[in-house]
Design brief:
By secondary structure, the chain is α/β, with parallel strands linked by helices. The chain contains 16 helices and 20 strands. About 1% of the residues have low confidence. The structure holds NADPH dihydro-nicotinamide-adenine-dinucleotide phosphate.
Length: 503
């Protein structure tokens, strides 16, 4: 195990990590305090210049060794993830596979993206303009429990490739996936001080924000707001990947079987405990009855359990707080007139935190299940008159993370997508943007700030510096900026740029 300061473990309070399927304790880790976090960050700061000096190609070579080692031993990594989350084999595999493509994207593209970029100078030929990129120094990361491997690492790796040292505070509920991943990173050649973990609870997370040079947070909107306030006080950059209430719109011309399967898959992935899970479905009137009948039939084939193998679709929920919230949303909907078409109950025969996939219809926007984030396996389906009404309902939310759409008419789908207030929209394959590392992903409205993936997900971990060099070929020693030569050159360039705007 690698935590930032193993020597400090004997003297503090501890977090206890349990297996949600069995309730058994997996282990205990120290709650690191402000001083210990500051010491970890100081060690990272001292180690960072040597890491930056290696150069981007050397860093990507080291991270390639690491990601190949995770891929080779993915069965081991999957067991670590499953033990602390209760998710299934497919769920654990998805975490590994989605991170794998993102890391390989940055290994391939970072050397090009981080190269100095040429820009147009005011006076071409006699001047040179460029933007160069410098790492911030020590980047801090705070991650949640629902995807404890993917969410802990997907921002951290581009920050490392950009030349930063990194310090991560994983969720107290599921910290071991990140610990295992960083141990492997050290074995692959990332110096121990360059990539560290600080364990603990929210106090440890807030201590981290007090000392790092930039912060990337993934978690709830409520905590994200506090992180943003502290980052603003310190004037450090922050990116926030927060909660969502993702809509799916099914238009009349959708491929029915694919839409039914996609809706269930993306609403029930990780027992609904995903920031980008489909949480509300709007179906055009012409296809509504067939869609609901299809969902109710298909959900009978969804398997729930703690067993191994790719045939088990849903595992148990990771913490009871979310299970209670799920039940509260179902009760509220039923009290306000929703119809329960399937599920709605705990499954104590499988374990304390198992909950059936639940289909609700006759739902509306007075119900909590259509307005508040639900971290549970609920599929609420609402009939809408047409696409306009669907878009209106989709946008009737404080959140704006991801959205999905089913239609055979891609051109119309892309037009409708642009009217949805969300950071991304997937057409005919929900949740596909997060698995496409060239595309930036992140929220609007209460779903966050900043983007992960794509060039945007790398460049948020560097400071740009603009450098302008003048050859002095057209220059006189003037005491003002408006000497006759400069004025003439300015007038000439003004004219030239009208004709050749890209000069
Ligand atoms: P929380 O906001 O409760 O916790 C997230 C992380 O922040 C944890 O490591 C937590 O520590 C830490 N933390 C808690 N309080 C503070 C504080 N005051 N200062 C700094 N750090 C703090 O979220 P959850 O762990 O419950 O995760 C679920 C939420 O995450 C959902 O809303 C979900 O939508 C969102 N999420 C968003 C994603 C995205 O990409 N947009 C991806 C995945 C999840 P500890 O757990 O130890 O208390």
């Amino acid at each position: 195990m690698t935590v930032a300061d193993p020597a400090a473990q004997s003297v503090q309070l501890h977090i206890s990590v349990t297996n949600p399927v069995t309730g058994e304790q997996i282990g205990a880790l120290p709650i690191m305090n402000e001083l210990e976090v500051a010491a970890a960050v100081a060690r990272a700061r001292a180690a960072q210049p040597a890491w930056a000096a290696l150069g981007v190609k050397a860093r990507t070579r080291i991270l390639r060794r690491w990601i190949d080692s995770v891929w080779r031993d993915r069965e081991t990594m999957m067991r670590v993830i499953r033990r602390e989350t209760g998710k299934t084999d497919p769920g654990a595999f998805v975490e590994i596979a989605v991170l794998d493509v993102a890391v390989n994207y940055y290994i391939a593209h970072a050397p090009h993206l981080l190269r100095p970029q040429r820009r147009s100078p005011l006076f071409p030929l006699v001047q040179r303009a460029q933007v160069v990129y410098h790492p911030y120094g020590v980047a801090g990361f705070i991650s949640p429990w629902n995807y404890p491997y993917f969410n802990a690492l997907t921002d951290l790796v581009p920050a490392l490739i950009a030349g930063n040292a990194v310090v991560l505070k994983p969720s107290e509920i599921a910290p071991y996936s990140a610990i295992e991943a960083l141990d492997r990173m050290h074995a692959a050649g990332v110096p121990r001080e360059v990539a560290q973990i600080v364990t603990g609870d929210g106090t440890t997370g807030s201590a981290l924000i007090n000392t790092v040079d930039c912060i990337a947070f993934t978690g709830s909107t409520a905590t994200g707001r506090q992180v943003a306030v502290r980052a603003a006080e310190r004037l450090i950059p922050c990116s926030l990947e927060l909660g969502g209430k993702d809509p799916l719109i099914v238009l009349d011309d959708a491929n029915l079987a694919t839409a039914v399967a996609g809706a269930l898959r993306s609403a029930l992935e990780n027992a609904g405990q995903a920031c980008i899970s489909i949480e509300r479905i709007y179906v055009e009137a012409g296809i509504y009855d067939a869609f609901v009948a299809g969902v109710v039939e298909a959900v009978q084939n969804v398997t729930l359990g703690a067993g191994d193998g790719l045939g088990v679709h849903i595992g148990c929920m990771t913490n009871e707080r979310e299970l209670l919230r799920t039940e509260a949303h179902i009760s509220d909907a039923l009290e306000k007139g929703a119809t329960l078409r399937y599920g709605g109950k705990r499954r104590p025969d499988l374990g304390a935190l198992f909950f059936e996939p639940t289909i609700l219809t006759e739902v509306d926007h007075t119900m909590r299940v259509m307005r508040e984030e639900t971290f549970g396996p609920i599929v609420p389906i609402m009939r809408v008159r047409d696409a306009d009404e669907a878009v209106r309902y989709a946008n009737d939310s404080p959140y704006g993370l991801s959205a999905s759409l089913y239609t055979r008419n891609l051109k119309r789908g892309e037009q409708i997508a642009q009217r949805i207030e969300s950071g991304d929209v997937s057409i005919n394959r929900p949740q596909m943007v997060i698995g496409t590392p060239s595309l930036p992903m992140g929220g609007v409205k209460a779903s966050g700030l900043g983007r992960r993936n794509g060039p945007e997900g790398l460049l948020r971990f560097v400071k740009s510096q603009s450098i302008l060099s003048d050859t002095l070929l057209i220059s006189i020693p003037a005491l003002t900026f408006t000497d006759p030569l400069s004025q003439a050159a300015f007038r000439a360039m003004r004219f030239i740029r009208r004709v050749l705007p890209f000069v």
